[in-house]
């Protein structure tokens, strides 16, 4: 099956025509396709191993499968788990057997592999195990939850990431320059500002970026020099509200993130939701919001509500699992929780104090009793001598200043200073109680 056969057909969508044919043409995923990396080595050796490509839409999973098949001389069977059942899998197996008899290998590209049920996965397993089929599964979902362990153990998981705006810009420029498969014959002029807006609106999806570019070029105007120009104003018809959401320098983009942060810090859930909605509707990546919320959870809530950070990370995971539409509610859920939670910046301040202190103490060394002693020599040097195992101590706390884990000959400093807010008040009480135990142990001559 020649999946590149129709790429010269200018009636096909631009994203179809511009798919890379070799790894040299491939943009992004340098951890996989860069020199000496796993997929690059497969191309060099011509030996492709079963794998699962896990990544967001438009990150290049299908293209990688096509390139691997072409470079290795294997025939590519392309099935979608949404449409294929056991019958289709068995038919692919029979075709693979016929090719094997003639010395040709078969790569089975299984799109949306996470949608295969148990019986379908069981039907596939023995043929992957025997090597009749080299499996390349593609999924947007975590395969460790969606693919059975037997199949997963026979395929290495490679994680793909969304393309960055710079990478998407490169994809768009190639399409504009390519006369054979792209838009080069039209002599289009598209300013960097316009390309940046298109790249941002594509949200990491190369296929979407090329689709937006193709649509934008429908609004190109003659430039008076025999070519055409795509003006920024044309993007209003292509992107709608996204075109005017963020200015060239990105000030509004970061202003909205700042407004989200400060609204949550000020315990104003409605204002936080307002700016989050504006940010997303303006073409901002919802993951940028959840990243900011993760920072807020430690910086502004901290131990006043220790549930805050796990809740944000759960919302992040939910967004990746549910997709954009449903996942946005999980982000809103986390934002509301952070906004109404008690606030403390004690963790943020403690970390800054610790960093400043360490910078002022270049000769800081670990006390001998905290060092490991894996060899007799290190034990003879006193490593680990005097260490008290907390779980063998009363209250699971080795009381006394002689075991405060602080570097010797280094001035004491209190970095973490709990506030009276929320759960952190309890943390402060526990620390005060342990200080009392230290004082009692020191007065009694130490432990």
Description:
The radius of gyration is 29 Å and the shape is globular. The protein starts with 13 loop residues before the first helix and ends with a helix. With 447 residues, it is of the alpha/beta class. Strands 2-3-4-1-5 form a five-stranded parallel β-sheet. The longest helix has 20 residues, at 424-443. It contains 20 helices and eight strands. 32% of the residues are buried. Helices cover 49% and strands 8% of the residues. A hairpin with a 5-residue loop joins strand 7 (221-222) and strand 8.
Topology of this protein?
Layout: H1 14-17, H2 30-33, H3 38-45, E1 51-54, H4 61-72, E2 75-80, H5 86-101, E3 106-111, H6 118-130, E4 133-139, H7 143-146, H8 149-152, E5 156-159, H9 165-177, E6 188-190, H10 192-202, H11 206-217, E7 221-222, E8 228-230, H12 235-239, H13 251-265, H14 269-281, H15 286-301, H16 308-322, H17 324-340, H18 346-359, H19 376-380, H20 424-443
Parallel strand pairs: 1-4, 1-5, 2-3, 3-4, 6-8
Antiparallel strand pairs: 7-8
Helix pairs in contact: 5-6, 9-10, 9-11, 10-11, 13-14, 13-15, 14-17, 15-16, 15-17, 16-17
Low-confidence stretches: none
Order of helices and strands: HHHEHEHEHEHHEHEHHEEHHHHHHHHH
What is the average of the pLDDT values?
87
Give the biggest sheet.
5 strands, parallel
Radius of gyration from the CA trace? 29 Å
Write down the overall geometry.
Answer: globular
Query: Can you list the strand order of the major beta sheet?
Result: 2-3-4-1-5
- What structural class should be given to the helix and strand makeup? alpha/beta
> Approximately what portion of the residues adopt beta-strand conformation?
5-15%
Distance between the termini: 77 Å
Helix content: 40-55%
The count of strands amounts to 8
Figure out the total of helices: 20
- Please state the oligomeric state of the protein chains shown: single chain
């Amino acid at each position: 099956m020649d999946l590149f056969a129709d790429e010269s057909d200018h009636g096909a969508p631009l994203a179809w025509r511009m798919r890379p044919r070799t790894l040299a043409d491939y943009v992004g995923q340098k951890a996989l396709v860069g020199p000496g990396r796993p997929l690059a080595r497969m191309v060099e050796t011509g030996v492709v191993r079963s794998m699962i490509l896990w990544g967001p839409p438009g990150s290049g999973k299908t293209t990688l499968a096509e390139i691997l098949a072409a470079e290795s001389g294997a025939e590519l069977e392309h099935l979608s788990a949404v449409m294929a059942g056991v019958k289709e899998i068995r038919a692919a197996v029979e075709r693979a057997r016929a090719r094997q008899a003639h010395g040709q290998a078969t790569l089975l590209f299984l799109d949306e592999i996470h949608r295969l049920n148990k019986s379908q996965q069981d039907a596939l397993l023995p043929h992957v195990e025997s090597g009749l089929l080299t499996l390349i599964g593609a999924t947007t979902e975590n395969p460790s939850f969606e693919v059975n362990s037997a199949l997963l153990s026979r395929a290495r998981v490679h994680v793909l990431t969304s393309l960055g705006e710079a990478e998407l810009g490169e994809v768009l420029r190639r399409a504009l320059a390519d006369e054979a498969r792209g838009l080069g014959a039209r002599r289009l002029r598209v300013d960097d500002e316009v390309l940046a807006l298109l790249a941002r609106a594509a949200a990491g999806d190369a296929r979407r970026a090329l689709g937006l570019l193709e649509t934008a070029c429908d609004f190109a105007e003659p430039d008076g020099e025999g070519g055409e120009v795509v003006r920024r104003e044309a993007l209003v018809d292509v992107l709608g509200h996204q075109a005017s959401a963020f200015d060239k320098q990105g000030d509004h983009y970061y202003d909205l993130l700042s407004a989200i942060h400060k609204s949550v810090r000020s315990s104003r859930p409605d204002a936080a939701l307002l700016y989050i909605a504006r940010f997303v509707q303006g073409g901002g990546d919802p993951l940028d919001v959840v990243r900011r919320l993760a920072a807020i959870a430690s910086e502004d809530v901290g131990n006043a509500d220790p549930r805050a950070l796990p809740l944000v990370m759960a919302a992040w995971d939910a967004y990746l699992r549910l997709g954009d539409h449903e996942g946005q509610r999980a982000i809103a859920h986390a934002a509301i929780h952070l906004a109404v939670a008690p606030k403390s910046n004690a963790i943020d301040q403690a970390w800054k104090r610790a960093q400043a202190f360490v910078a002022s103490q270049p000769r800081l060394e670990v006390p001998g009793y905290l060092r490991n002693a894996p060899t007799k020599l290190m034990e003879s040097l006193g490593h680990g001598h005097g260490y008290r195992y907390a779980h063998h101590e009363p209250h699971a706390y080795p009381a006394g200043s002689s075991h405060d884990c602080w570097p010797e000959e280094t001035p004491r400093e209190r970095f973490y200073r709990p506030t009276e807010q929320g759960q952190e008040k309890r943390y402060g009480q526990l620390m005060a109680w342990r200080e009392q135990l230290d004082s009692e142990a020191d007065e009694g001559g130490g432990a």
